Amino acid sequence: MKRILGWAALFILGFVVAIVVANYRADVPVETLKAKYANVASRFVDVDGLSVHYRDEGPRTDSVPLVLLHGTGASLLTWDGWATDLTKDHRVIRLDLPAYGLTGPNRDNDYSMVYYARFLHDFLTEIGVSHCNLGGNSLGGGIAWRYALAYPNAVRNLILIDAGGYPLQSKSVPIAFRLARVPILKDLLVNITPRSLIEKSIRNVYADDSRVSNALIDQYMDMALREGNRKAFVSRMGSSMSDSTYLKIPTLRQRTLVLWGAKDFLIPVDNAYHFHRDLPNDTLVIMPNAGHVPMEELPKESVRIIRKFLD
């Protein structure tokens, strides 16, 4: 009996080792990813010791640019569809936030909402933008309205896309988000990253997962493997996702568009109605066939809504 148990234990150990070996992924140097993802529009600026990747496109005669902030696990590439359309007649600035994309981790391992609002102020100051229209998705939306609270004269119009902020009960959470909060497993996630994990996490936030292409999965995988990003992701997921600051949302005076996917199960549509209830000067648009990232899943349909609001 002991011999059988011994063989079983060895088999299980061997199976676990095989899985670990098969799914181990080394960090990818940022210079390697720059060669693949930085283009002629890409710029890099030093902000608080970080080399921040951003793109500033469209007519410079547009004195009030649209600044776009992506969500957790994403990058400035999530706005490609919007940028292609809007930069014909709008100046659009988008960036990889600290912990994500080509920008990567900050030196203090601080990914609190207070940090992100202060970072955004430092970034915009560094590139000479004192007044803007500000939009954000998910994490980026939470940063956007907090920035508008802290610097009310710097924001003309606010665009909140499936934005974080209110206490919420998610109906479904991407598996990578869940693992990043589990002791021991979160430490393994820093080195063991199956492509299937990235794929399932993306499909989780789309209303129609047939829209998730292999190229999109590869893009998210590459950005996750950027040196330092996985450790930063785990740190970010361990930070507080919400606080009592949402009680100040009714004091926002910016004209605001609240855009939401009806099939968002990460930040359910109830939260859109919370914003609509509390914001004194808002327009609410619910997209019936979109999930958590309408600008990425349905770029043509969602950008028409943005154009109507801005114009």
Question: Could you characterize what this model shows?
Answer:
The protein is an alpha/beta fold. The protein has one domain: Rossmann fold (3-Layer(aba) Sandwich), CATH 3.40.50.1820. It contains 13 helices and eight strands. The protein has an eight-stranded mixed beta sheet with strand order 1-2-4-3-5-6-7-8, with helices on both faces. α3 crosses α13 and α8 (195-204) crosses α9 (214-225). The chain starts with a helix and ends with a helix. Mean pLDDT is 90; it is low at 4-22.
Would you kindly provide a brief summary of this structure?
41% of the residues lie in helices and 15% in strands.
Enumerate how many helices there are, as a single number: 13
CATH uppermost class: Alpha Beta
Number of domains: 1
* Radius of gyration from the alpha-carbon trace, in angstroms: 20 Å
The amount of beta strand, in percent, is: 15-25%
Whole-number mean pLDDT: 90
Oligomer state equals single chain
Main β-sheet, spatial strand arrangement? 1-2-4-3-5-6-7-8
Instruction: Report the helical percentage.
Output: 40-55%
Which structural class matches the secondary elements?
alpha/beta
CATH architecture label: 3-Layer(aba) Sandwich
- Strand tally, please? 8
- The CATH topology comes to Rossmann fold
Query: Which spans of ≥5 residues are poorly predicted at pLDDT below 50?
Result: 4-22
State the CATH superfamily name. Answer: Alpha/Beta hydrolase fold, catalytic domain
**Intertermini distance:** 77 Å
Question: How would a crystallographer describe the biggest sheet?
Answer: 8 strands, mixed
N-to-C order of helices and strands: HHEEEHEHEHEHHHHHEHEHH
Task: Tell me the overall shape.
Answer: globular
